[in-house]
Structures are given as structure tokens and as C-alpha cells.
Design goal:
65 residues; mainly alpha
Amino acid sequence: MFQPSDFTLEQQFSIRSFETQVQQMSREQAQDFLVKLYEQMLARENMYKSFLKHEWGLDTPWQAQ
């Protein structure tokens, strides 16, 4: 896991701000938020995979020579 020193000062501030927002949520709001956050994480992962496949030329069909 990352240590606080692994993050920039701006990132540390963002984490603290996020923590404050989450603490003000109800349990149900926090659970809904976590599900949506997880969906976004998976979407980002898929986007990165797609981007890398494209950059590495793995998304085009092999052509017979």
C-alpha cells in the first residue's frame, strides 16, 4: 500500500478532503458511493487496457503475409 509520503502535497490534501466528505455520508450513501467508485475504477482499467492494446498494436487483426 502507498505511504502518505508517496503522494504529492496536492494528493494528500485531496485525500483528506475526500475523507471529510465520506465521513459526512450516511451508511447507505457511502455504500452506494463505493459501488459507483468501483464501477469507475473498472471502467478506467478497461480504458487503460484498450489504450495499451492500441499503442502496442494488439487491437488489430493479424494480417497474412
